[in-house]
From TrEMBL:
The EC number(s) this enzyme carries: 2.7.1.33
Record gene name: coaX
Protein family: Belongs to the type III pantothenate kinase family.
A Pfam family: Pan_kinase
Protein name: Type III pantothenate kinase
Main location per the UniProt record: cytoplasm
Source organism superkingdom: Bacteria
Length: 256
């Protein structure tokens, strides 16, 4: 049984893959100081709660935070007796190599999204992932990651306003009824919500124009549905793209 771990700058997600489906998905905030024993306490409590009794034989990790990988390796070794595959390390093979400037270290989450999206949809894709940052991953006809766009994340943008301006409160994202806000919170939500609708549209249009072709736009990440409700920004919405990509890369390494 495979344990897939997606460690982002904000949240860490564990999912158990039985070869056909995910049995459960567990989420915790990312902390570089969390020890192997702390991971196990959290993990074993939740799998027990869900009534899952499986033997983990394989682990694959994608981490955008390099520091957490050490403790996740210890966790994997100590409690499952195996060595994890770590996306981005030389020993972890990718189905298609990224084509970027020499010396560029592409975020492993973007490599994983690319592999997952190409497996499901074929090539010429734009994957828009709403995490800590909002990333656009451009996938070639043949399935290579060929570059993209990194924009500040939705929650990060709201938080930045709050942090930098004394009179601006902490606000959660939601769809404003109107564009013209008549109170501070509504003004802030309008700026970020409608600003993001425009950002996604404009960037996707410009990518298609630059590449001189039609491309399939895939939306993923926690906030993708909120934007998709309002405007037809995406051709496809995926709620488990990163996890799917991890299973694709794991399979590729097993077969290879
Ligand atoms: N309607 C909503 N309003 C506010 N936040 C939401 C809403 N729906 C989902 N979310 C947030 O989306 C997040 C899940 O997003 P996702 O897992 O894609 O990225 P992340 O964990 O924030 O970032 P990263 O992967 O970079 O750590 C959760 O933290 C959740 O709080
Ligand atoms: C952009 C983030 C933070 C998105 O999670 C991550 O993919 C990352 O740290 N990337 C490294 C730089 C790059 O992908 O070009
Ligand atoms: K993510």
């Amino acid at each position: 049984m495979l344990l897939a771990i997606d460690c982002g700058n904000t949240n860490t997600v564990f999912s158990i893959w039985d070869g056909e489906k995910f049995l459960c998905t567990l989420r915790t905030s990312t902390h570089h100081a969390r020890t192997a024993d702390a991971y196990f306490t959290w993990y074993s409590t939740l799998v027990k709660h869900y009534g899952i009794d499986v033997e983990i034989t394989d682990v694959i990790i994608s981490s955008t935070v390099p520091r957490v990988v050490f403790n996740l390796r210890v966790f994997t070794d100590r409690f499952f007796g195996c060595r994890p595959l770590v996306v981005g390390k030389p020993e972890c093979l990718l189905p298609r190599e990224p084509r970027v400037d020499e010396g560029t270290i592409v975020g492993p989450d973007r490599l994983v999204n690319t592999a997952g999206a190409f497996d499901r949809h074929g090539g010429d894709l734009i994957v828009v992932d709403f995490g800590t940052a909002t990333t656009f991953d451009v996938v070639s006809k043949d399935g290579n990651y060929i570059g993209g766009v990194i924009a500040p994340g939705v929650n990060l943008s709201l938080e930045a306003l709050h942090m930098a301006a004394a009179a601006l409160p902490h606000v959660d994202i939601s769809k404003p009824q109107k564009v013209v806000g008549t109170n501070t919170v509504a003004c802030m939500q309008s700026g970020v919500f409608w600003g993001y609708i425009g950002l996604v549209k404009e960037i996707c249009e410009r990518i298609k124009a630059e590449r001189e072709r039609e491309m399939t736009v895939i939306g993923t990440g926690g906030l993708a549905p909120l934007f998709a409700e309002t405007e037809a920004l995406f051709d496809v919405l995926e709620d488990d793209l990163t996890m799917h990509g991890l299973t694709v890369i794991h399979n590729h390494n097993k077969e290879g």
